[in-house]
Design goal:
Elements: H1 2-5, H2 11-19, H3 21-27, E1 31-36, H4 41-62, H5 74-83, H6 92-100, H7 109-116, E2 120-124, E3 127-130, H8 131-143, H9 145-152, H10 157-160, H11 162-171, H12 173-194
Parallel strand pairs: 1-2
Antiparallel strand pairs: 2-3
Helix pairs in contact: 3-7, 4-6, 4-8, 6-12, 7-12, 8-12
Length: about 230
């Protein structure tokens, strides 16, 4: 709403409003974060998937897990395996990643919104979900990053599915997913460290370093040792 309510061409007005923005968010009963229009079926799939991921992430933290060294149970492994094809090609992970790559998630404004807001709801077209659900998603995905990379096995694509390999090594969906969840978790960790009411209940202390095995994009000639064909 700041883009509408503030005259963006009036620099003094914009600076004055920016200086009190944290008070506005802090005194708001509810904060609605508009991330854009609904893009149809991909967004509906992504939001439904985010809710499932969020529920798993919440259970994961409530069980006292806070890192990536927790033993993997059979049900969780089977669930990841059922939704993670080679290279993530044509999978629900692509819809979920696209949702997290919307411009809102890369704006510095979201820090004020999620830190100061007492209740933050994310609005995508007609769909609503709690911002904390995205935090739980990020925690759960980050904790299983090595498993995801192993199941996606992009290093094997060139031998088993050249067409999918071409797609993967042009768009690198696994790395995009890692960057997207890193951003969501970083914002939530800032909330937690700030001692805000809605953030203080969400997470134990966590490392700021990314859990993803590869921060950059791998190449077909240098696959990870964890990829099994």
């Amino acid at each position: 709403m700041d883009a509408i309510c503030i005259n963006q061409n009036d620099i003094p007005e914009r600076e004055a409003q920016v200086s009190i923005m944290h008070h506005i968010y802090a005194t708001a009963t509810d904060v609605i974060a508009w991330i854009g229009k609904d893009n149809g079926a991909p967004d509906r799939r992504a939001i439904a998937f985010a809710r499932e991921l969020g529920a798993r992430g919440r259970s994961y933290l409530n069980a006292g897990h806070g890192g990536s060294d927790v033993p993997l149970d059979e049900e969780t492994f089977a669930w990841f395996e059922s939704i993670t094809p080679f290279g993530l090609v044509d999978s629900i992970w692509l819809d979920f990643t696209a949702l997290l790559e919307r411009p809102w998630f890369s704006r510095i404004w979201i820090v004020q919104e999620v830190v100061m807001g007492k209740q933050v709801t994310v609005q995508c077209g007609p769909h609503q979900f709690e911002w904390t659900e995205l935090f739980y998603c990020a925690i759960f995905v980050e904790a299983h990053a090595s498993l995801l990379e192993s199941l996606a096995a992009p290093g094997c694509l060139k031998d088993h599915d050249p067409k999918s390999a071409e797609f993967y090594f042009k768009s690198f969906p696994l790395q995009r997913l890692g960057r997207a969840t890193d951003r969501s978790e970083a914002s939530a960790t800032f909330v937690h460290s700030s001692g805000c009411r809605h953030g203080s209940e969400m997470s134990p202390d966590r490392q700021s370093e990314s859990a993803w095995p590869h921060s950059g994009a791998p190449t077909p000639t240098n696959p990870s040792a964890s990829w099994a064909c």
